[in-house]
Amino acid sequence: MKIAIVQLNLNQYIHYSEFCKHMESLVKKAKDDNSDLIVFPEDINLCILWAKYDQFASKSIKPVLEHVFEFLITKINLSWMTSLIATEHQKNIIESTFSYLSKKYSINICSGSYYEKISGNLYNLCSFYDRSGNLIDKRFKYKLVGIEKAWGVKSQYNPVPVLVDDLKVGLAICFDINDPDYIKAMVESGSEVILVPSNGYRIFPWYPFDEFKETPHRQRALENNVPILRPYCCGWLFPGLYFRGSSEIVNKKGLVLAKPSSKDKEQILYFNMEDA
């Protein structure tokens, strides 16, 4: 199996069709390069915080950026934010987009993570789609960061892999990879490769980067004899919200097989299971 991971620019879209067009360009490229599965990063919903299905909106994004800024970085009264980050608009746009594209291009897709309310609880999760556009399964984030806890996001322990074609694929969202026991359980459950959608948030581009601390996927791969693929977001969403594109593909020995040519630019990296 050939897997493509996307280092994604989080462009802000006001309309569903614009978001879909961006995703389609990436899916098509991966398919043209003979990929069987394409994987997007964490927090893909940041592209469509206020997107609509029903009408095209002005291209001007200044009012949107001001709203996003207040929404994302305020440190007080965070519980009210759940009504914004768990909108049905975001969920419906993401799920309909990837269902449509997986069927159109006959490719498996891991959506990248987004927020969804299920039975009254808020989760950070990824959806998997098969080549016919069917939702295969969902996997949830286990190790939450502080702001997610403040938002009221719920954790879920789910180390069981998803069957994609004939490959058992484990899914760990960002900080999940820091937990060696969780990754070990994922491999013991049969995972042959582990995907780690991540976001890479920084306050500014030159924010200190600790090579060892921020690449635990290399050690997890070595410990468990499993290849790990980690797509990140990249570039500016707006001032004060920058994403360092630190995407990597590592083999079973924890050796880096692929990384982007730029931390700021959108790029697709590829991995063949034969190279594990």
How would you summarize this macromolecular structure in one to three sentences?
With 276 residues, the protein is α/β, with parallel strands linked by helices. It is built from seven helices and 15 strands. The strands form two sheets. Strands 1, 2, 3, 4, 5, 9, 11, 12 and 15 form a nine-stranded mixed beta sheet that branches. It has a six-stranded mixed beta sheet with strand order 6-7-8-10-13-14, covered by helices on one side.
Walk me through the structure.
The chain has 276 residues and is of the alpha/beta class. It has a single domain (2-275), classed as Carbon-nitrogen hydrolase (Nitrilase/N-carbamoyl-D-aminoacid amidohydrolase). It contains 7 helices and 15 strands. It has helices spanning 16-32, 62-73, 82-85, 88-105, 146-151, 180-188, 216-224; strands at residues 2-9, 37-39, 108-118, 121-129, 135-140, 162-164, 167-171, 193-195, 201-202, 228-230, 233-238, 241-243, 248-250, 256-258, 267-272. The strands form 2 sheets. Strands 1, 2, 3, 4, 5, 9, 11, 12 and 15 form a 9-stranded mixed beta sheet that branches. Helix 1 packs parallel to helix 4. Residues 54-64 and 73-77 have low confidence and may be disordered.
